[in-house]
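Side project, low priority. Logging it here so it doesn't get lost.
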Amino acid sequence: MTTTPIFQFGTSRFLQAHADLFISEAMKTGLALGPVTIVKTSGAADRDLRLAGLQAEKGFPVHVRGLHNGKVVDEVTMVTSVKRALSTAANWAEVVRIFVEEAKVVISNTADRGFDLDSTETHLPQGPPNSFPGKLLVLLRARFEANGNGLTVLPTELISRNGSTLAAIIRELADAWYQDAAFSGWIKQNVIYVNTLVDRIVSKALEPAGAVCEPYALWAIEKTEGMALPCRHPAILVADDISVHANLKLFILNLGHTALVQYWLDHQGSADLTVRQILEDGAARAWLEAVFSDEVMPGFAAMGLSEEAERYARTTIERFSNPFLDHYLSDISQNHSEKISRRIGGFLAWSGNADAPVLSRIRGLVS
C-alpha cells in the first residue's frame, strides 16, 4: 500500500489547483516528499462524488487558462499526487491510522471560518469533533500516544499569520480538553506551525474533481526552524518574512479589485460587468493604472519595495485581463465597505499616504 506523507484537510478546488498540482509536478522530478491523503472534514454530501474523482488512478484535471507574459496559456494537466480521499465522518479509524503512521506534513484549507471552534464542544467529544481545530487536536493526541513523532502544519487559509493563529487555538483547546502537561509540552516542542500565504485565482470547479485556474500562482512559506516542505516547486517561495508578499497581494491585487468596484458603482453600476470587461473601457483602465502608479507605488517606494510592487502591479493588470476569467464586480462588491476599510484604509495607514488624491475619492468610506 502506498504511504502518503502529506495529509490534507479539505477537498477545495483551490488546493486541487494549487498544492496538489505542485506536488504532482514535483513528484515527476523526485522533488516531492510523497503523495497525498485528502480528508473531507465537512458533512456535505455533494462532496462524496468528489472523493472518488480525487483518487482516480488516472488523476484529475487542472485546466490552466489565462495570460502569462502577454501570451495565452490554455493547457490541461492531470494531477496524480492524491492516492487516498477519505471522510472524517465515514472513515475516521483509517484517518487516524494514516495521520499517526504516515503523516509528516499537514496542509489545510477549510474556508474563511475554518478555524472557528464548535461552541457546543466545551469538553472533549466522544466521536470526531465537529470543528477542524478539534479534529486536528484529537489526531495529534493519537499521534502523541502512539509514537510521539513531530510534524509540520502548513495552513493555507486566508487568515493573517495563519500558522501562529492555528497554533494558539490548538494549544488553548488542548489545555481545555486534556489538561495534560506532557501532551501540551509535546505540542509546543514537536508540532511546527508555519505561516503561509497563497495567491491564485481558481475560477471554476470541474466534476467530479478538478479545477480551472489562472497561470499565476504563489505559495509563500515563512522559513521556520525544523519545518518540512511538501515539495520543491517554482511557485513555492520560502522567505524569512512573508509579510511583503501579503502586503503586495492586499494593497495591489485586492485593493485594485475594490477600487474597480468603486469606479463601477460611480460610473456604470447598473450593468453587471466582469473585471476584464471594465478594463476594456480605456477610461477605467487608465484610472486603475493611475491609482497604482500615482498612489500605490509611492507607498511601496517609501518602504523600499519599488521593484517588487511595480512587477506585481504589471502582473495584476495582466491577471485582471484574463480572457478566460469571468470575475463579476457584483461578486467582488460583497462586503464592500469592510473591504474598503481593510484594503484602502489599511494601505493609507500602512503607507502614510493619507492625502492621496485618487484614493481620496473613496477615502470617505473608510471607517
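Brief comment: The longest strand covers residues 60-68.
Revisit when time allows.
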